[in-house]
């Protein structure tokens, strides 16, 4: 059964097909208005995320399907101690495709290993959030006309921002991409991501602490929120926070065809006054997210008609135990501790990608 | 883009058209069962209100449309600090019409200023609740055959009861209306409402503390709940509470064609035994609310086909700051503090109607 | 108006008709995909229960209908003090059938006495849960080919497990049923159930504390969860808990055509490894639950076309007051305290079945 857990589950060709479908949907919505008639999407959100959930639900409804689900853990059977695996098995009786959001890293993977229907990862802790990346890619494609030969700035919290990591992983497969990593020292891109994705792919990159210096060079600026609690000291936060806020003044130094993206919700990192700038594309991005989710649901339901039984056993090894407290393997009952060998010769947990100790 | 924030946003003629449509729907539901096919309503409820939400959802479903949304703030992006304006912009990508409930006064107005789709105020704090008034008006019209030449008693908490204020504002535009204000001193109609609406319109009114005295004179009795915490002293509450409870005994002194309304939910202010009295119309009122919401959704979606860009700037002034702690301007980021000059020469916050200090 | 509050509200013949319809639906889903077009189900869940709620919602959607509702009390008007009776009356304006879950025993009965549409009890505290029993019966019927002449083991918490009590009541009407009650002393089947249902029906039964001893004799094993807090002492719990966990090893001693049921969610009382055993039928049971709910909704909506006004007064007596703290009569306003005389000559509360003091 084909699922989408990590953006790299799909090849570059598959992503391009999704993008083409999404563009076609946006231009011909009526052609798709009954495509999923009598199909049901289950939105299993173990933590709230209105935008993501509503985007999935709107996507399914615009395909003529319907939706069941829950929007927070307190409304789920998890409070009675039900495992992710059992939830996935049971919901497979009720729905044709599942979108799962969980604070546990690897939760969607566990669900996909147990469900009888396709599972879409709608965010698993700080780990993956591939449908956000689908929205990002479609927006870049539609606004810039290409996904290669671009200078892409990533600004804000590059350490914990999973959307940034996923976008870098996605972009690393295109040619001519240069990324500009703009963040305070405390929130730099993790070494693992830098080594495993950026350097391994041979992607060009520079790091800087100055948004203002970087701005004039960028084709795309990807803004993210900086959370106060990420900083070691309150003084440091106060000293730095304003320099990562995008204002009308700063926009004056950017290229006239640069585009600004943001996974949303924003707090104050982009001034509301920037919204009127035609280069501000973050609300278009939200709309594009809906079209990509429509294309994704169509693709997965189509592939589910001829499911290929996936085998996990031969690629994975036992003998390690994950130490990541947010990993789904910490709480899921009777879940085998499985690890995979990555290119650097290390073993990583298959659920959360944490390196074995 | 036409929205409904305050009942007086609609003219008397428009209200009459809505009433006629609602009556037609109630008599010919099948004619409307596919009117909103492929349309979506978003119910954005930042605080729970089952009846109002279910009424909106039933309305949209009976028009053949579908529904997305959330039923309390904890399930929304507001917990991540998203502004009302951003929520409205994003949800505009997912839905064709929005019904918003918020504890913040002016929230629906802010939403309507930012949404690309019509916004219906489903209650903004103690401020407005226009769709309740639509239900009230349809019930009076259907049961009494007219909206003019009526003696209407309002009983209970007239100070904080927003449904009472909205109904008075609506009735003030009809001729021959006399209102009888029945409440303890502590919960009298606020001077502002009395002066701005009742007296300005030249409406006839009397004030009394006795439900029993007023009852025989009424064509319509609008009951509301009296909350213990509204009273200065517990003794005062104990002394008074029973006199504002409608019982079978009290009903014996009312006209044989009087009708009893209540916005619901009731606690104990109308005895369950009164439900069997044919004059008890509060459950019919709930049903009428659904029909009026159907008519309203149809009207707003129709008008949205040819949206008129509204301009706010020329009617509003800056230079004041609202001091109402429940006003949306207290928390919404980068929201301009706008005031309007009212007939009495005072300046009032456009969001919550609080007078400038 | 016909409702389903207790499994014995339906005759054996009616249950058989439901089973036949459910089987037909499962084999011909397309024939039913539009049966409830323009009909609405309200899922009023005053406490969370994902599986039950999603099963009802999937059932209604697969019949072409739609769904409104809430999934926990905090999102309902109950927090404003609305009675069950009023909620039922109002929701009757919005939906064609109601599924109600409440922690209060008798809540669904009170709802059915006030609603203008059929009410399905989706669980009322520790009292009844008839649609779970429908799922159980269909699974036994489909897997064993019959509902009579079976040895059925019930294992775990037989004291508080309402699903066990309901299943025993249902099975007591078939011939040749032998039940094997497997539990620690602390969690034995209550004397009331034993006397009123098991012995009165002349059903064969044995009691044992050993799952291993009982296993080889069973045609059906119905597992339930044992909660730590049910035990008098932690030592007792630790000593016993493993003996009531079903493992691959224990399954080796069961008949080759025995079937294992579980109302779910499970915690650890059935090892995940048992899932691969073809005798493990608990996920099929979840699927069967959906089909039975579809059959039930069809039946109740069909009967609602020609509603028979039920009269309660002549069967019930006043003069007692229920002392069960979980009884709906403790909190529901102006609810008459009604009792019925049962076969043993005692008087029991009509809402929760508690014996009068």
Write the layout of secondary structure elements.
The structure is a homotrimer of 357-residue chains.
Chain A: H1 12-27, H2 29-32, E1 40-45, H3 50-62, E2 66-70, H4 84-91, E3 97-102, H5 107-114, E4 119-124, H6 130-144, E5 150-155, H7 162-171, E6 177-182, H8 191-199, E7 204-208, H9 211-214, E8 220-223, H10 234-240, H11 248-251, E9 259-261, H12 282-304, E10 339-341, E11 347-349
Parallel strand pairs in A: 1-2, 1-3, 3-4, 5-6, 5-8, 6-7, 8-9
Antiparallel strand pairs in A: 10-11
Helix pairs in contact in A: 1-6, 1-12, 3-12, 4-5, 6-7, 6-12
Report on the structure:
Chain A is α/β, with parallel strands linked by helices. Chain A folds into 3 domains: 7-128 and 287-304, Rossmann fold, CATH 3.40.50; 134-279, Rossmann fold (3-Layer(aba) Sandwich), CATH 3.40.50; 315-357, Roll (SH3 type barrels). Chain A has helices spanning 12-27, 29-32, 50-62, 84-91, 107-114, 130-144, 162-171, 191-199, 211-214, 234-240, 248-251, 282-304; strands at 40-45, 66-70, 97-102, 119-124, 150-155, 177-182, 204-208, 220-223, 259-261, 339-341, 347-349. In chain A, the strands form 3 sheets. In chain A, strands 7-6-5-8-9 form a 5-stranded parallel sheet. In chain A, a hairpin with a 5-residue loop joins strand 10 and strand 11 (347-349). In chain A, helix 3 (50-62) packs across helix 12, helix 4 (84-91) packs across helix 5 (107-114) and helix 6 (130-144) packs across helix 12. The longest helix of chain A is centred in the last third of the chain and has 23 residues, at 282-304. Chain A is globular, with a radius of gyration of 20 Å. Chain A starts with 11 loop residues before the first helix and ends in an 8-residue tail after the last strand. The model of chain A has no long low-confidence stretch (mean pLDDT 93). Chain A binds chain B through residues 33, 48-51, 54-55, 57-58, 61-62, 64, 66-67, 71-72, 264-268, 271-273, 275, 283, 286-287, 290, and chain B through 38, 40, 42, 66, 68-70, 74-77, 79-83, 85-87, 89-91, 93-95, 333-334.
């Amino acid at each position: 059964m084909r699922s989408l857990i990590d953006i790299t589950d799909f090849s570059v060709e598959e992503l391009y097909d999704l993008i083409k479908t999404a563009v076609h949907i946006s231009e011909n919505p009526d052609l798709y208005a009954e495509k999923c008639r009598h199909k049901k999407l289950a939105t299993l959100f173990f933590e709230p995320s209105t935008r993501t959930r509503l985007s999935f639900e709107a996507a399914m409804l615009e395909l003529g399907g319907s939706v069941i689900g829950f929007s927070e853990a307190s409304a789920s059977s998890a409070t009675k101690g039900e495992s992710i695996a059992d939830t996935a098995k049971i919901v497979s009786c009720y729905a044709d495709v599942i979108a799962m959001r969980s604070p546990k890293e690897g939760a969607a993977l566990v669900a996909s290993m147990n469900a009888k229907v396709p599972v879409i990862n709608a965010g698993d802790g700080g780990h993956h959030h591939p449908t956000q990346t689908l929205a990002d890619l479609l927006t870049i494609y539609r606004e810039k006309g290409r996904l290669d030969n671009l200078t892409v700035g990533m600004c804000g919290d590059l350490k914990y921002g999973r959307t940034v990591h996923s976008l870098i992983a996605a972009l690393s497969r295109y040619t001519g991409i240069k990324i500009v990593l703009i963040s305070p020292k405390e929130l730099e891109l993790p070494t693992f991501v830098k080594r495993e994705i950026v350097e391994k792919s041979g992607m060009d990159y520079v790091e800087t602490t100055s948004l203002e210096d970087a701005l004039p060079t960028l084709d795309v600026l990807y803004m993210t929120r900086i959370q106060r609690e990420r900083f070691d000291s309150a003084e440091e936060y106060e000293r730095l926070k304003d320099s990562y806020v995008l204002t009308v003044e700063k926009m004056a130094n950017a290229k006239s065809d640069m585009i600004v993206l943001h996974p949303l919700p924003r707090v104050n990192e982009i001034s509301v006054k920037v919204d009127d700038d035609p280069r501000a594309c973050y609300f278009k991005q939200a709309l594009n997210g809906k079209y990509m989710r429509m294309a994704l649901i169509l693709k997965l339901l189509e592939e589910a008609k001829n499911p290929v039984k996936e085998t996990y056993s031969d690629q994975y090894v036992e003998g390690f135990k994950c130490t990541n407290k947010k990993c789904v393997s910490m709480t899921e009952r009777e879940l085998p501790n499985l690890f995979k060998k990555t290119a650097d010769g290390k073993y990583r947990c298959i659920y959360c990608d944490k390196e074995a100790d």
